[in-house]
Design a protein that fits this description.
Distance between the termini: 13 Å
Number of strands: 6
CATH architecture of the largest domain: 3-Layer(aba) Sandwich
Structural class: alpha/beta
Largest sheet: 6 strands, parallel
Radius of gyration: 19 Å
Shape: elongated
Strand content: 5-15%
Number of domains: 2
CATH class of the largest domain: Alpha Beta
CATH topology of the largest domain: Rossmann fold
């Protein structure tokens, strides 16, 4: 079973709040005369319109009337590390319960260092048998590109028809997993909760923990993790 990270297991808004604070602080250092509150509000407004869109910082600078270099602000955004991140309710229990029966993988988009830091801050560093950050394969392979899904499945030694993917974004998570041949489960959490389906998921739930019983019923037992970082059947995470 494969999972998305942001807004599926971990509320993206929690991490984003801290990252935008870091950007506003960096702007204040560049221009002590600037109004940090105004810029911070502009950042929040632009992120609320879609945090995955490019140019959030550029548009916020324009909205706040600031003429500052963008590069150091982007650096501050990428350098932010949350000391801790909460998961959605029931996530640790869901993952540990599923992993007793099937291998688990995580497939996530975004800067790989940032994403891996989020995983650690959420206490999920040891929750998966394989973690695939699509940017490590090339930004052109972000979901819905099939490569990150297939990379995770190959590492687990599992065919797409015997796997499920759980995610929140209909255009990347659900469309991508479905195209590969996996069961796709959509969770209605985060900023994409109101987005229309691109393809029909096999299941839609209000929260990720609610998918647990359905996943247990639909998927036959798969190879379980073996010793020394290997998987039964010869796969390697």
């Amino acid at each position: 079973m494969l999972f998305d990270l942001d807004d599926t297991l971990v509320p993206q808004a929690d991490w984003l709040h801290g990252a935008l604070d870091a950007v506003a602080a960096a702007a204040a250092e560049l221009d002590p005369a600037a109004d940090p509150g105004r810029f911070r509000r502009a950042l929040a407004a632009e992120a609320a319109a879609g945090s995955a869109r490019g140019g959030v910082i550029d548009r916020a600078l324009a909205a706040a009337g600031l003429d500052l270099p963008v590069a150091p602000l982007v650096d501050a955004f990428l350098a932010y590390r949350a000391p801790a991140l909460r998961t959605h309710p029931g996530v640790p229990e869901l993952l540990s319960g599923l992993r007793r029966h099937v291998p688990l993988g995580l497939v996530t988009d975004g800067n790989a260092e940032v994403q891996r830091a989020k995983i650690a801050a959420a206490g999920l560093a040891d929750a998966f048998d394989v973690v695939v950050c699509s940017d490590e394969l090339g930004r052109e392979h972000r979901k819905p590109d099939p490569l990150p899904f297939r990379t995770a499945l190959q590492a687990l030694g599992v065919a797409p028809a015997r796997a499920a993917f759980v995610g929140d974004r209909p255009d990347t998570d659900i469309a991508g997993a479905s195209a590969v041949g996996m069961l796709a489960v959509r969770v209605l959490t985060g900023e994409h909760a109101a987005s229309a389906d691109v393809v029909r998921p096999a299941l839609t739930v209000d929260a990720v923990a609610a998918a647990g019983p359905w996943l247990h019923e639909r998927l036959a037992p798969l190879p379980t993790p073996g010793p020394a970082g290997t998987l039964a059947g010869g796969g390697r995470p």
